[in-house]
Design a protein that fits this description.
This protein is mostly helical. It has a single domain (5-108), classed as de novo design (two linked rop proteins) (Up-down Bundle). It is 59% helix and 0% strand. It contains 5 helices and no strands. Helix 1 packs antiparallel against helix 5 (94-108).
Length: 111
């Protein structure tokens, strides 16, 4: 098992918690078509928060549970910056961006 797994698992829980705190957690999944997007971050079918909840978190949890190799890189925080800057959400997203940056750093940390 990769030594980063426990820290990454904790970070995923913190990201989920922040999505819930901000009211960005959905109880109903998007359509199968929306979840089947081939675009990066599913930008054509999902809001960024939906992508985090329905694509990113489940995929990362699956990687950890199945002891699969972690991605070599992650740029999720950069995407969050672009999304939230365009929305002008007035800092509501700041904690989520911090958590995503910490996730990116964990992914790129030496094994």
């Amino acid at each position: 098992m990769d030594a980063r797994f426990p820290k990454i698992a904790e970070q995923l829980l913190l990201i989920e918690r922040e999505l819930r705190v901000q009211g960005w957690w959905d109880d109903v999944a998007p359509s199968i078509e929306a979840l089947s997007s081939v675009e990066p971050f599913s930008v054509d079918t999902l809001e960024f928060e939906q992508w985090l909840q329905w694509i990113f978190l489940p995929r990362m949890k699956s990687i950890l549970e199945q002891n699969l190799p972690l991605p070599n890189a992650s740029g999720i925080q950069e995407m969050a910056e672009m999304v939230f800057a365009a929305r002008n959400v007035q800092g509501k997203d700041r904690q989520l961006q911090v958590l995503l940056k910490e996730f990116d750093l964990l992914i790129t940390a030496s094994r």
